[in-house]
Amino acid sequence: MQPNSIDRWCWRLLIVVSVALGGLAAWMPRTLQRTDRALQQQLLLLQGTRPAPTNLLIVKIDDASFDQAAFFSEDPQAPAWAKDLEGFPWPRAIYAQLIDRLFAAGARAIAIDLLFVTPSAFGPEDDAALAQRLQRYGDRISLATEYREPDGSGGLSLGELTETLGSNLRVGYINTLPADDGQILDHPARYRETVVAPLGLPVLPSLPETLQKERSPARALRYYGPQGHLAQISAWQVLDDAEWRRVQGQVRDRLILIGPTAASLQDQHATPWGIQSGVEILATALANDRDRSGLRFWPQSAPMRALLTSLFSVAIVLVSRSGRSLRWQIAPAIAAAGLWMVVAWLSLLAGWVLPLLLPLVGSLAIGVSTGAAAYLREGLERRRLRQTFERYVAPAVVAEILQSPLEAQQLLRGQRRTVTILFCDLRGFTALTRDRASLGDEETLISQLNEYLTAMVTEITQVGGTIDKFIGDAVMAVFGSPLSQGEEADAAAAIAAALGMRQALETLNQRWQAEGRPVLDNGIGLHCGPVLAGNIGSPQRLEFTVMGDTVNLASRLESMTKELKAPIVISEALQQVLGDRLQTRSLGRSAIRGYGEVALYAVEGWAIAVPENPRVS
User: Fold this and answer.
1) Are 309 and 338 spatial neighbours (Cβ–Cβ below 8 Å)?
2) Domain check: are 199 and 126 in the same one?
3) Domain count within the chain
4) Pairing, β 596-606 against β 582-592
5) Which parts of 36-96 are beta strand (E)?
6) Cis ω on the peptide bond leading into residue 178 (within 30° of 0)?
7) CA 224 to CA 281: how far, in whole Å?
8) Shared domain check, 108 and 183
C-alpha cells in the first residue's frame, strides 16, 4: 500500500466514523448516557461551589439537637423541650413550637420534610397541637407525602396523611428519581413527568413547589456545594431561648424547610458533591427554582443531537485534512476538543448542558486516526528508504539517514571528520588457539572469545562508540562517526571505553581463573585526528567506514602495547585534547614506520572527574 492510498482510506473512514458518532449521539446506550452525565457533573464540580441562596433556610433535625437533649438529661432544671428531643420521632407539639417561633420571626412559609402517616404515639393532644398550627397558618405550611408501593404489590399509589391532623392540608411529594449510580441529579418535578403522569396517578406539586406559586420545570439540579453549604440552623437553636435570640435574625423573609439531617435517621443520598440529606436536596431544588439556575440539556431532540455531533466531527476531519504536516493534521482535533470544553464550561455557567462524551471521543478518535495514518505513512517511507540503503551501509548509518534524510547523501558521498579511533587486540591469542586446537577444545575457546567480545562491545557501545569491524579477535571502534558530540567529548568517551574494557577483562579473568580456564590479556591503542568517512567497497558489498592515517596510527599504537608494557597507549594528539583531565605516564618517543618518532603516553586513569558528556555516563 502506498502512502497516498493510506491517506485516502483514512479520510474516508473518518467521515464514516463522524456520521456514526452522530447516530450514536441520537440513540445513546444507557452506559454512555451515564458516562456523559458523569463528565458533565465533573465539569460542574470543577467550577466550584456557588454562593448559597439567601432566601431560604433549613431547620435541621440533626445530631446536635440529640446531643443537646442528652446534655440536659441529667439536669433537673432542664427545659421541657430538651426532654422531648431525647428520642425520635419527636412529639408533634415540638413542630408546633418550631412553627410558632419561625413565623413570629418573620418566616414567609414553612415546609416539613417528614411523613405524618399515622396518629402520634404521644396521644391525641399531641396531634391536636400540630393540627391547630396547620389550621392557623393555612397554606403557609405544607407537609410531605410520597408516592409508594403499597404492601410490596409492585403498583404505585399516593400516600395519605393521618386524619388526626385535619383535612384540606397543603401537601407536596418528596420522591426523587435516582440515577443509575444512585445519585440524585434531577429536580423532583422529573419524577412527576417520568413516573406519575404516565401512570395516571393524582398529580401533586413537589414539596419545594408548595413554597412558591409556579410549577417547577423538570430540570437537572445544580448543587451549590457539599453538605452543610446551604444556610441552616439546628432545631434545638430555635427551641432554646438563649440560642433563639442569637439566630432568629436569619429567619425573616425566608422560606423554611424543616427536615432530618442526622445520619441515624437514614435520609441520606448520593450527590455529585457527596452525601447530602433529603431536606438539603429539596432545598437545592427550591433554590434552583428561585434563582432559575436549574440545568437544561441541549439539544433535547435526537435528530438535533445527531446533527450537532456529526457536523462537529466532520468539520474536524475537513480541517485536519487540509494540514500539510502531521502537526497541523493533529492540531485541529486537539484544538477542537479544547474549544468544545470551553464552550461546554461557558454553557454550564448559563445553565445549559452540552453533550461531552461523544464530541470529545470523536475529537480523540480523529486525532489518533490521523496520527496513526501519519505513522503508517512515515513507516512505509522509512521502510522504502531502509530497503534502498540497508544493502550498502551499516545500521548506524541507516539510523542517521532516517533521522536526517537531507544530510544522508552528503554522508554517503564522503565527509572529512575528526574522530577518535580505538583498536583492541588480544595478546598471545594465536598461540592459545593453536594449543586448544591440538587438544580438540576449539568449542570452549570460541565460547570464551564470544564472552570476551561481548564484554568489550558493551563497554564501547554504552558510551556511544560505534563498532566499525572485527578483525579476528581484534576490535576497531570509532568515536565521532557517523554521529559526533564534539572532539573532546568523543575523545573522553573513547578513553572511558578503554578503561571500562580493561576493568571488564579483569572481572572476566577472575571468573575464568576460578573455572579453570585460561586468562586473557589485551592491548588498546587510541589516536584522534581527521579521517575520511563514507561508503567504501564494491557495488556488491559497500561498507560505511573510516580511512586515513589516523586509523593506521591507532592500529600501530595497539601493536606497540606489548613492547611498551602498557595496556592502554595513546598518541600525543589525544593526550593534548584531554589535557590535565587525564592521568597519563610518558612513554617517550618511539619510531613508528611511516610516521617517524611519535610521543606516546600510557593511560592510568582520570586525573579529575570525567568531563560532563551525555555519552559518558
Assistant:
1) no
2) yes
3) 3
4) antiparallel
5) 56-61
6) no
7) 10
8) yes
